[in-house]
Write a structure and sequence with these properties.
- InterPro entries: MmpS_C.
- By secondary structure, this protein is an all-beta fold.
- It has one domain: Lipoxygenase-1 (Sandwich).
- Helix content is about 0%, strand content about 55%.
- The chain is built from no helices and 8 strands.
- Strands 4-1-6-7 form a 4-stranded antiparallel sheet, with no helix packed on it.
- A hairpin with a 3-residue loop joins strand 6 and strand 7.
């Protein structure tokens, strides 16, 4: 007999089919920035001296979190996460913004 287990926490690897596509974006400021991001609960990635605007597209899976943050000193920056081309799911505009998104469908 098959058994089921509770849903894995958001730090687990994604399973099943993707539920859509999202794009992380960072814009604003004039100097290169440091961008840190995690996709679908995976390990944090860091990109340094990044010119803006910056974006990264990825597949979205159910019940795992993705996050992007940017550090350009005291300059205001804007981060967004947009799902399926037109659904704004996270927006922050401030120095050192962080945007988070997890799909629960």
């Amino acid at each position: 007999m098959a058994t089921s287990t509770p849903a894995a926490p958001s730090s687990a690897a994604p399973t099943g089919q993707p539920v859509g596509t999202a794009v992380m974006k960072v814009s604003g400021g004039s100097a290169p920035v440091t961008i840190r991001y995690r996709i679908n609960g995976g390990p944090e990635q860091t990109e340094t001296n990044v010119p803006l605007p910056w974006e990264k597209q990825y597949s979205v899976y159910n019940e795992v979190e993705s996050q992007v943050s940017a550090d350009g000193g005291d300059a205001p920056l804007t981060c967004t996460i947009i799902m399926d081309g037109d659904k704004l799911v996270s927006l922050k505009s401030e120095p050192r913004p962080t945007c988070n998104f997890a799909y629960w469908g």
